[in-house]
């Protein structure tokens, strides 16, 4: 699994956990829904750390909590 795929899955996991739609999550994070949707599909190749921080702030969790998931244990190496 790539880091991008893991981040997308984690966003979906947290949205479900907090009973939020993508639009609801975007609203809480103060970012456009299109930003999150692009992180979930092929548009965004590199989800930004600032955007992840905003999502965390909206959920009132730390970045450490965001990445504290088994999803991030076996990430494929980056191929140049």
Structure description:
With 80 residues, the chain is an all-alpha fold. 59% of the residues lie in helices and 0% in strands. It has one domain (3-69): 434 Repressor (Amino-terminal Domain). The chain has helices at 3-17, 22-29, 33-40, 49-59, 63-67. It is globular, with a radius of gyration of 12 Å.
**Most strands sheet:** none
Point out poorly predicted stretches: none
* CATH homology superfamily: lambda repressor-like DNA-binding domains
The H/E string reads HHHHH
- Return the CATH topology: 434 Repressor (Amino-terminal Domain)
Quick structural overview:
With 80 residues, the protein is mostly helical.
Summarize this structure as a short list of keywords or feature phrases:
434 Repressor (Amino-terminal Domain)
């Amino acid at each position: 699994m790539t880091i991008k795929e893991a981040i997308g899955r984690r966003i979906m996991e947290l949205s479900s956990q907090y009973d939020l739609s993508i639009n609801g999550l975007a609203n809480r994070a103060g970012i456009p829904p299109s930003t999150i949707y692009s992180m979930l599909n092929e548009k965004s190749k590199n989800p930004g750390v600032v955007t992840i921080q905003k999502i965390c702030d909206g959920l009132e969790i730390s970045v450490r909590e965001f990445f504290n998931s088994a999803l991030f244990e076996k990430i494929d190496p980056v191929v140049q």
